[in-house]
Each structure stands twice: as structure tokens, then as C-alpha cells.
Design a protein that fits this description.
With about 290 residues, this protein is of the alpha/beta class. It contains 13 helices and 8 strands.
């Protein structure tokens, strides 16, 4: 098996090392050539140009900042794309991903879209997984190789499907990070250090069932649109959101995040969900 990896940031380097450890013949290319030095010492082959990188393997894994980088690197090498499978693990929007699939096909290549759901140090280890979408037969051909990076979760033919699931997971992640940073800023105005505050806050996040009220059947509230308010209500949660905003204003901490959260509850209550569970905010967030 031969694999080309284009893009040697932390994620790309981690993937190359996993492939090399599995005995795969790996060719690498990066715009900053020195990033390949340690990988070449470990057994990878350095391609002089993107065209050479494409020529080296039918399977080409891209680990770049975004899809614009793919066009910048491969746009001048389109003649070398024929017969290649591009597995793009870069982040972008679903629409951009669909356009990229059409672009690849117009040059005789196939695009499989992926989203790796662990940080670089975890690639190839227990718990690592990635979403994939694109042509089923193409994905199946390379599933075993891609599975070296982590468990493969194939989500369908639509090239945008894996990208959307990737972004949705990061939506949860990035929002939580902003919440943590905002909370630390709030407590530090009272002289409480992050070292003292974070252990309790992170423990609260870890107990997701208790904190969200989403047990095994919790998804039903979102799928069925039924939001029983026997544990909490949008009115109760909205009051708390208002108090967080008030505390932030008093402490002169940035209010953008608590204002956004409060707006969900205010709109849900205005829509008649005041006595429904907090999950009813979904009804004012969803498309349409």
C-alpha cells in the first residue's frame, strides 16, 4: 500500500507516523520543506513538487487549513489528479466541500471527505475516530488504510455529510471553550484563580447526563419536538441566563456570550415554551 500525505502540520505528521508504523510506503509534501525532515528520517519519501506527490500514490491524504489551500497546492497540477482518490481531512463548510467533490471529479479524481475527531497526539490510538463521506465504493477501497488513523464512521455519499458532522461536534467543543474562558474571567474579578475554579467546572462538564438531563432517550426531545418540563423549564433556565448576564455586566466582563444564550430562552418563552424543558430552545434555533 502507498499513501501520499500533503500538509505536515501536527495532524499531518501524526498521520504519517501512524502509516509508517503500519509498514505503508508514505510520500510527503509540505510547502515548508523542513517540516518533512524528521518524517524522512523515519522512513517517508519526500516529494519535490505537489505533482510528484500525486504521482507517487493513488491514495492522497490532505491535511490542510482549509479547502482553499487544496486549490492553491493542486490547482496547477490538475493533469496529475486523474485516477487519484483525494481524502481531504481539512476543515471547511459543507457547500465548499460539495464544490470540491465536483472539482475533483472534473479532473478524473474522486474526493472522500473526512473529519478527524481527536487531537493529533491521539491519532491512531484507542478512542480515535473520524467521519467520512463520499462515494461508497471508493471509501470501501481504502477503509482499512484509513482505519489505521482511528475508527471509521462512514456517513453516506453526500461529500458534505462528514464535514457537517465534524463542524457540529466542534460547535459543541468551541462553545464550551468560550464558556470556560468567560466563566474564568468572571470568577477572577472576585479574586478566584483559574486553578481553584476549573476543577469543579470541568467536573460538571464531565457529568453530561446529570448536567444536561439528556439520558439515553434524551435525543427524543430534539427528534420528536416534545419537551417535558418536569425537571427544568425554559423559564427557570432563562432566569439563570439573565442572572449570568447581570453578573457579567456588573463585573465588566464581555457580555456577548451570555446575551446570546439569554436570547435563546427569551425567544423560546415568547414562542410559548416557558413551561417546557430547556431543550425547547431548539425550536427557535432550528432551520426554518
Amino acid at each position: 500500500m502507498k499513501v501520499t500525505v500533503i500538509g505536515l502540520g501536527p495532524m499531518g505528521q501524526a498521520m504519517v507516523r501512524v502509516f509508517l508504523e503500519a509498514g505503508i510506503d508514505v510520500t510527503v509534501w509540505n510547502r515548508t520543506p523542513s517540516r518533512a525532515d524528521a518524517l524522512v528520517d523515519a522512513g517517508a519519501k519526500r516529494a519535490a513538487t505537489p505533482g510528484d506527490a500525486l504521482a507517487a500514490s493513488e491514495l492522497v491524504v490532505l491535511s490542510l487549513t482549509d479547502y482553499a489551500a487544496m486549490y492553491e497546492i493542486l490547482g496547477g497540477e490538475t493533469a496529475a489528479l486523474a485516477g487519484r482518490t483525494l481524502v481531504n481531512l481539512s476543515s471547511d463548510t459543507p457547500d465548499v466541500t460539495r464544490d470540491a467533490a465536483r472539482w475533483a471529479r472534473s479532473h478524473g479524481a474522486e474526493l472522500v471527505v473526512g473529519g478527524v475527531m481527536v487531537p493529533a497526539p491521539m491519532v491512531g490510538g484507542d478512542g480515535a475516530y473520524a467521519y467520512y463521506s463520499g462515494p461508497t465504493d471508493v471509501f470501501t477501497s481504502y477503509e482499512k488504510t484509513l482505519g489505521l488513523l482511528g475508527a471509521t464512521r462512514y456517513v453516506g455519499e453526500d461529500p458534505a455529510a462528514a464535514q457537517l458532522l465534524y463542524q457540529a461536534n466542534l460547535d459543541v467543543f468551541l462553545t464550551a471553550l468560550s464558556g470556560i474562558a468567560h466563566a474564568v474571567a468572571l470568577v477572577k474579578t472576585a479574586g478566584v484563580s483559574a486553578a481553584d475554579f476549573l476543577p469543579d467546572a470541568l467536573a460538571m462538564l464531565a457529568d453530561t447526563d446529570a448536567m444536561t438531563g439528556l439520558s439515553d432517550d434524551g435525543a427524543a426531545a430534539f427528534d420528536d419536538g416534545v419537551h417535558p418540563g418536569h425537571l427544568s423549564t425554559a423559564t427557570m433556565m432563562g432566569a439563570t441566563a439573565a442572572h449570568i448576564l447581570g453578573a457579567s455586566e456588573s463585573a465588566r466582563v464581555d457580555t456577548a456570550l451570555p446575551r446570546a444564550v439569554l436570547s435563546h430562552y427569551e425567544r423560546a418563552i415568547a414562542a410559548g415554551h416557558g413551561q417546557d424543558n430547556w431543550t425547547s430552545i431548539y425550536e427557535v434555533i432550528k432551520a426554518g
